[in-house]
Structures are given as structure tokens and as C-alpha cells.
Amino acid sequence: MTNGLRAAEQVISLVRENEDLAHHGDGCTPEVIAAAEAEMTLAFPPSYRRLIEEFGTWDAPPIEFPGVYRTPARGEKLLGTPAYTQEDRVALGLPHHLMVLLHDDVWGVVVLDTTRPDEDGEYPVVAWNPGAPDGGLMEKIADSFGEFALKECLRNMS
Predict the structure, then answer these.
(1) Which domain CATH number covers 16?
(2) What is the number of alpha carbons within 13 Å of residue 60 lying toward its C-beta?
(3) What is the pLDDT of residue 135?
(4) Are 35 and 1 in contact (CB under 8 A)?
(5) Which ranges of 18-132 does DSSP label H, i.e. alpha helix?
(6) Does the structure show a pLDDT above 80 at 98?
(7) CA distances from 69 to 14, 75, 136 (A)
């Protein structure tokens, strides 16, 4: 098992063990995941896919992981990462190869850089600032989504 997937499994355990603090959805089917990827024309890396399969969306307050989800009010519209990615492409000029994970007061827009997969198919997590002169890419936050999510969950649930 890769580092990213191992970290994702630890996140699942942490969230399940701390349901008094953390909240989560019911997960996504392979069909919903495929639809989200098709909408963005980007593929989820293994660790993010695993967490979306398990939870769809989840949080470890104060951080929220929008993931992929639907609501009764929005019907079939996919929310979370697919919606943020498409909205930020239009509103902020997000480069097509970046996938939005979340918006954060400290980092700005937290994204996966799909042009830099590692040998396990994981993408680095980076902060993107649409106003930066270098195209917005800033610091690398983590090697994989699983590692990023685990670090945030451990910080908020310990």
C-alpha cells in the first residue's frame, strides 16, 4: 500500500473513531466518481478517490473536506471538488490541470497539481494564489492528498 493510501486509511479510522468531533457523508459510488472526473476532465489520485468512496464529504473541524456530494436542493449537480474546480476556472482563471480541494483562509485555494503524478499516481497538494505573478503556484503542502488529510485530521482531533 502506498503512503498516500496508507494515510487515507488512517484518516478513515480517525474519522470513524471520532464521530463526536468529525462528520461525514455516505460516500460515492463509482458512477458518481466517474461523473465528477468527467466534469473536470481530470482523474482523482488513489488516496483522494479512496476517501471520496468512503465519505464523499467530511470534516475534522475546523477544516472541511468538500470532496464530492449532492444535496436535495441542487439535485443531480455534483458539489465539492467538481463544482469548485469548474467555478474557479471561470472566476479565478484556475489552470485546467489543477483540481480544487478546498478554499482556506491561510493557504488560499488548495489544489492537486495533476501534471506532477508520482509513481503511485498521487499528485502533490499545493497552495494556489490566483494573484501571484508566477501563475499562482505557491508552496507544496504535501506529497499526496492522503498525507495532507491525515496531517489536518491529526491536528484537529488530537
Answers:
(1) 3.40.1580.10
(2) 20
(3) 67
(4) no
(5) 30-40, 46-54, 81-91
(6) yes
(7) 21, 10, 27
Considering the chain, what is the average pLDDT of its residues? 93
Confirm if 157 and 20 have CB atoms less than 8 A apart. no
What is the four-CA torsion angle of 33, 7, 122, 35, rounded to 10 degrees?
A: 0
Residue length of the chain: 158
DSSP state of 121: S
Encode 11-22: b = buried (16+ Cβ within 10 Å), e = exposed.
bbebbeeeeeeb
> Which cell numbers in the block locate residue 149?
488529510
β-partners of residue 103 are 109
Range of the structural domain that residue 122 is part of: 3-157
How many domains in the chain? 1
Give me the half-sphere count of Cα atoms (radius 13 Å) on the Cβ side of residue 40: 30
Query: CB of 153 within 8 A of CB of 14?
Result: yes
The pTM of this model reads 0.92
